[in-house]
Amino acid sequence: MRRKLVVANWKMHGSLASNQALFEAFKQKLAPIKNVDFAVCVPYPYLAQAQSLLAGTNIAWGAQNVARYPVGAYTGEVSATMLKDFGASYVILGHSERSTAYCESAENIAAKFMMVKEAGLTPVLCVGETLQERESGVMERVIAEQIDELLLTKGGGVFANAVVSYEPIWAIGTGLSASPEQAQSMHEFIRNRIAGYDAEAAQSVCILYGGSVNPVNAAQLLVMQDIDGGLIGRCSLDANDFEKIGQAAAFATQTGGAK
Ligand code: PGA
């Protein structure tokens, strides 16, 4: 049975003062929510703050990017072992806001994924299609290409206990979420594709949905068979909204939405 996972993606938001208030609110509101895993992915400079305020709680923390190399003359980069030094557990990779703005190739993202795994951290690999790709019916091929980079070069085993986040680009930050059926169908497609290489890994991979998740649509999305949780942007900057999404995950678990 896979546990639900709800990850906050704070993107480039926050300050020491506003984070402190949000961390304290998260701690208080999420503590009573059982059988759900939580994480907050913060901008790099706030990892130490996350570590000092979240250690010992039911909320893990992580980053939103990592270097593809372990160490060396890579000005401006941050390695996976540095993230580990600050107690990070999760690293978001390949988010479309990065891959589009900084022209990240699938090969580059796959290299980062392997770095994260080698450091003993959990990669959160984002995949997604544009609206045009969905409307022209090629979305499955597009998603397949994004995960095949790893499947073909490393095999399916690398997805064991990893996290994949299906984030249709047209749904991110737009208020326009995928329907539960659209998301379920793509999650099933991703799981089946991984199963084609490694059936066991396909059962353990945690597949999140991301893109305009809010307290209202979370309840419908999180009960779907292959939706193992959510990657939450805008609504993770509001402790009440994030709490409600966490509660929806717990409710889905209780009512058998999780396997
Ligand atoms: P959103 O962002 O919830 O604001 O749509 C999701 C994401 O980009 O991870």
Sum this structure up briefly.
With 259 residues, the protein is α/β, with parallel strands linked by helices.
Question: Structural class of the secondary elements?
Answer: alpha/beta
Order of helices and strands: EHEHEHEHHEHHEHHEHEH
Count of alpha and pi helical runs: 11
Low-pLDDT segments, ≥5 res: none
Number of domains: 1
Share in helix: 40-55%
Using the coordinates shown, work out and report the CATH topology. Answer: TIM Barrel
- The gross shape turns out to be globular
Strands of the widest sheet, in order across it, are 1-2-3-4-5-6-7-8
Task: Explain what the structure shows.
The protein has 259 residues and is α/β, with parallel strands linked by helices. The chain has a single domain (4-254), classed as Aldolase class I (TIM Barrel, Alpha-Beta Barrel), CATH 3.20.20. It is built from 11 helices and 8 strands. The protein has an 8-stranded parallel barrel, surrounded by 7 helices. α7 (139-154) runs parallel beside α8 (180-195). The longest helix is centred in the middle third of the chain and has 16 residues, at 139-154. The protein is globular and about 45 Å long. It starts with a strand and ends in a 5-residue tail after the last helix. 44% of the residues are buried. The mean pLDDT is 96. 2-phosphoglycolic acid is lined by residues 9, 167, 172-173, 210-213, 231-234.
Write the layout of secondary structure elements.
Layout: E1 4-9, H1 16-30, E2 36-41, H2 47-54, E3 59-63, H3 80-85, E4 90-93, H4 96-101, H5 106-118, E5 122-127, H6 131-135, H7 139-154, E6 163-166, H8 180-195, H9 199-204, E7 206-210, H10 215-222, E8 229-232, H11 239-254
Parallel strand pairs: 1-2, 1-8, 2-3, 3-4, 4-5, 5-6, 6-7, 7-8
Bound molecules: 2-phosphoglycolic acid (PGA).
